[in-house]
Every structure is written in structure tokens, then in C-alpha cells.
Design goal:
Layout (H helix, E strand, L loop, with lengths): L7 E6 L2 E5 L3 E6 L5 H17 L6 E6 L5 E6 L3 E3 H7 L4 H16 L9 H10 L6 H12 L6 E3 L8 E4 L4 E3 L6 E3 L1 H15 L1 H15 L3 H6 L1 H11 L6 H9 L5
Antiparallel strand pairs: 1-2, 2-3, 3-5, 4-5, 6-8, 7-10, 8-9
The chain binds adenosine-5'-triphosphate and magnesium ion.
Organism: Collinsella tanakaei YIT 12063
Protein name: Aminoglycoside phosphotransferase domain-containing protein
InterPro entries: AGP_Transferase, Aminoglycoside_PTrfase, Kinase-like_dom_sf
Length: 254
């Protein structure tokens, strides 16, 4: 694909850039990212579109000249929940309720061809050079002991991936990490993502999620070391490594 000069850049991170083309969004990976990851994100999104979850429609995967491989999707006009929360902190809890209800709604869907959460976490734990074989074994055993579930899990569910559409509906973007698996694991990941920013917001989220989903907090907490290992393996932010390692350590392996 060729990107027009009128595009605007929404984000630039180490391994990608996201552009707004007016009515479409293009997410361009850098050369270091495996091409298969880009296709996987597009395939996840196609499966999520087909499952009937409100999400941007996937349009195209191709190489951007002089840049990298990219996924093009429809643009959902609106504002993210993260922006709303930042704009008006007094309404944080109201937005959090919408956020939690949406996550629980997504967990009600099935997409039987999506990658399996268990396989993804096992792969990520095995790829971690920062922890020793004994700790990796403990984490894999813990993963193996978890209840087998097959619900749609976003895998990176945080307020910046929820768009409040101009039509008043909520849409979810960024399905790169979607799997079928345990909702409690997905909630543990969201809790972790909040905790990396704000501990108080993380606690408010966890309490509300467990209450609304009728899930014991202990079950979500049991996933925390696994999701911390998985986030560490993604290597999104070097400065968070010690925090994530401490979450892996905190486990009580009785
Ligand atoms: N289809 C879309 N319509 C409207 N806005 C979008 C759309 N896709 C992405 N965005 C905006 O671009 C931002 C970044 O996109 P996205 O969340 O996919 O990338 P990312 O968070 O950098 O990716 P990753 O979590 O995979 O590292 C979103 O937070 C949202 O504001
Ligand atoms: Mg995102």
C-alpha cells in the first residue's frame, strides 16, 4: 500500500507506527517484527469481526513502500476511553464500569479458531531468559493446573484500546494478542496493565471486575505471575522489568 501525504501519525513506538488516513487506520510494523505477527494480528481481527464483536473491520495487509508490513482497518470515529478518563478524572469510575461490562461481554463470545491462550503463555514463559529454569517450570506447572476455558480474550484489554464511537457504541481495537482462554487470565492482564500506571486504579478495576463477573479475586490473582511473565517476554518497556519480575517472585508455590 502507498500512504498519502495527508496522513497523521497517532502513535510511534519502538516497533510500530499507527497512522490515521481519515477514514482508515494503518498500523505499520518495523522491520524487526516478524511478518507473521502482522498477519496474525489481521487474522485475529478477521475472526473477531466474524464473531460479531464490535471492532474495526480489517481491510488489507501489505507492505508499505519504504517502511514495513502493515494492517489497514476501518477507522472508528470517536475518542478512546483512556482519553475520556484523562479528560475528566471525576468520571473515572463511570467509565470503568463501562469498560468492565464490555470486557465481560467480550468474554461471552467464542471464536474456536483463535490461538489458544495456554499455548501462547507457555511459549512466552519458555522464551524468558530473565528467569531460571526452576521458576519457568513452576510457572508452567501453575499454568497447567488452571481451569480449561475457551472464551474470547483480548489479551491487552486497557482503556486505550476501547473507542467510544460517535454513534455512542463502544468498539475494541488492537487484537494482536487475542486468544481463546480463561477470562480470569485476561482480567489479570488488565489489572497488571493498570498497576503499571496507577495502583489505585488497578485495585478499583479488580474489585469491580470480580464483582460484576462474579469471579473470586483469588482466581484472578492466581494468574498474575503468569501474565507478568508474559508481559515481561513482550519486552514493551524496559523500565517495568523489575516490577514484573517482582510479580513473578511473589508467587507462593506450595
Ligand atoms: N480502527 C481504529 N479506529 C480508530 N482509532 C484507532 C483504530 N485503531 C487504532 N486506533 C487508535 O490508535 C491507537 C493505537 O492503535 P493500537 O492500539 O492498535 O496500537 P498499539 O497500542 O500501539 O499496539 P500494541 O498494543 O499491539 O502494541 C489506539 O489507541 C486508538 O487510539
Ligand atoms: Mg493499543
Amino acid at each position: 500500500m502507498i500512504l498519502s501525504d495527508s496522513k497523521t501519525q497517532i502513535v510511534e513506538r519502538g516497533n510500530k507506527k499507527v497512522y490515521d488516513l481519515g477514514d482508515k487506520i494503518v498500523k505499520v510494523a518495523n522491520a524487526a517484527k516478524p511478518v507473521s505477527d502482522v498477519f496474525n494480528e489481521a487474522l485475529n481481527l478477521a475472526r473477531i469481526n466474524e464473531a460479531g464483536i464490535r471492532s474495526p473491520k480489517v481491510l488489507e495487509v501489505s507492505e508499505v513502500e519504504g517502511d514495513g508490513w502493515a494492517v489497514m482497518t476501518e477507522k472508528v470515529p470517536g475518542v478512546t476511553l483512556a482519553e475520556k478518563m484523562a479528560e475528566d478524572p471525576s468520571r473515572f469510575y463511570e467509565y470503568l464500569e463501562q469498560f468492565v461490562d464490555l470486557q465481560i461481554e467480550i468474554h461471552g463470545f467464542r471464536a474456536p479458531l483463535l490461538n489458544r491462550q495456554r499455548d501462547k503463555y507457555a511459549r512466552m514463559i519458555n522464551s524468558l531468559a530473565q528467569i531460571n529454569a526452576t521458576t519457568r517450570y513452576n510457572l508452567l506447572e501453575r499454568l497447567d493446573g488452571m481451569k480449561k476455558e475457551f472464551q474470547v480474550c483480548h489479551g491487552d484489554f486497557n482503556p486505550s484500546n476501547v473507542i467510544v464511537g460517535e454513534d455512542g457504541n463502544l468498539y475494541v481495537c488492537d487484537w494482536a494478542h487475542a486468544t481463546q482462554g480463561s477470562p480470569a487470565a485476561d482480567a489479570a492482564m488488565t489489572y497488571l496493565l493498570f498497576a503499571l500506571q496507577d495502583k489505585q486504579q488497578a485495585e478499583a478495576y479488580l474489585e469491580l471486575y470480580c464483582d460484576r463477573a462474579d469471579v473470586p479475586m483469588q482466581i484472578v490473582r492466581r494468574w498474575m505471575s503468569i501474565v507478568a511473565a508474559s508481559e515481561l517476554a513482550r519486552g514493551r518497556a524496559d523500565q517495568d522489568a523489575d516490577f514484573l519480575l517482582s510479580w513473578i517472585d511473589v508467587v507462593d508455590y506450595q
